[in-house]
Write a structure and sequence with these properties.
Structural class: alpha/beta
Radius of gyration: 20 Å
Bound molecules: ligand AN7
Strand content: 15-25%
Distance between the termini: 49 Å
């Protein structure tokens, strides 16, 4: 069952809404014992592995609703600008809805797996000589002027769908966590999770709210710096964004919850990326590791209160999205002749 069916009472759907779904959502909340030991104290850490959605990122929660509503409203085309995952998701849901999909991507700046997805699902992929922020500005103007629906997170249905991630976390834990850690790029997801937690509290499903702790890559940290970053730079291409669309809403989530938005360096992101893969068995893309990198950084600073507490880190996209980064982060496999003795010696027996 997808998120629209499961959480329909919380979503803007009616009997007339066609449900375009790939059974997104219901992603696992994985206990991270190695990370818990690193942090110490009486802390429980959980990883919400959104890379296990149908197109391998959290975007599917929002896209099922955005595309369903587009079809309900008789739109026959959708468009997005993307650092990769939005385009992969939009392409898949548009294919399923049998409508056109146009994606603007910054040329040579999105991970290989995401490009492959958009292309194989049959989207019209336009590589723009410019960065994500420039692509998004173009997509906004085009969707304003022409009959094509914008499915970036400026589309409120995206936020509505993505808030279901918060519902699932509360349903799994039986209450809200104390801290909710999340990477911040265009700032739609932190906005969505905060909305979800607040709605669950209003409905009496939970009694408390988490502190929202968001993390930007240092070279792409406009919210932390307090100004637009013209040429954002980071290995975490998914969050290489210098002018987030939901900037103010992310600040509201931070301030209303008493949380923070901080920076993590590329070095910290890649260390968390490798740690997740090699110590927890969880392979995510670099941007996703920003949440864990941020939690480890804050723990070192003594940020977390003492006593029993629960931290959820959202892991936004699967590691297979960016195979080049994985290969570049490790030693190449050793080449050995196909002889038993040589291989046994290599293993160390
Ligand atoms: C893996 O696909 O913006 O703060 O165009 O792919 O809601 O933007 C992706 C963002 C985190 C940041 N992790 O979320 C896009 C795009 C991954 C992502 C983010 C993205 P937002």
């Amino acid at each position: 069952m997808g998120i629209i069916k499961k959480y329909r009472e919380y979503l803007p759907v009616t009997k007339k809404t066609p449900i375009i779904s790939l059974n997104e959502g219901n992603t696992p909340l994985i206990r991270a014992e190695y990370i818990e030991k690193l942090i110490g104290g009486n802390v429980e850490v959980y990883l919400k592995h959104e890379g296990l959605n149908p197109t391998a990122s959290f975007k599917d929660r929002g896209m099922t609703l955005a595309v369903s509503k587009a079809v309900e409203n008789a739109s026959n085309a959708v468009m997005c600008a993307s650092t990769g995952n939005t385009s992969a998701s939009a392409s898949a849901y548009a294919a399923r809805a049998k409508i056109k999909c146009v994606v603007l991507i910054p040329k040579d700046a999105i991970a290989l797996g995401k490009l492959a997805q958009a292309l194989i699902h049959g989207a019209q992929v336009i590589a723009v000589k410019g960065n994500f922020d420039e692509c998004l500005n173009l997509a906004r103007v085009i969707t304003d002027k022409y009959p094509i629906t914008l499915v970036n997170s400026l589309n409120p249905h995206r936020i509505e769908g993505q808030k279901t991630g918060a519902f699932e976390i509360c349903d799994s834990l039986g209450s809200a966590p104390d801290y909710h850690a999340i990477p911040v790029g265009n700032a739609g997801n932190i906005t969505a999770y905060w909305k979800g937690y607040k709605e669950y509290k209003e409905k009496g499903k939970i009694d408390t709210l988490p502190k929202m702790i968001g993390f930007q890559a240092e070279g792409a940290s406009p919210i932390v710096k307090g100004h637009i970053v013209k040429n954002p730079k980071t290995v975490a291409t998914a969050i290489k964004i210098g002018n987030p669309a939901s900037w103010k809403k992310a600040e509201a989530a931070r301030d209303e919850s008493g949380g923070l938005i901080g920076v993590v360096t590329d070095r910290e992101i890649l260390a968390a990326y490798k740690l997740l893969a090699s110590k927890e068995g969880v392979f995510v893309e670099p941007a996703s590791a920003a949440s864990v990198a941020g939690v480890l950084k804050q723990a070192k600073k003594g940020y977390f209160k003492r006593g029993k507490l629960r931290i959820v880190c959202v892991l936004t996209g699967h590691g297979l999205k960016d195979p080049n980064r994985a290969i570049a982060s490790v030693k190449k496999p050793k080449v050995v002749v196909g002889k038993l003795q040589a291989i046994v010696r290599e293993i160390g027996f």
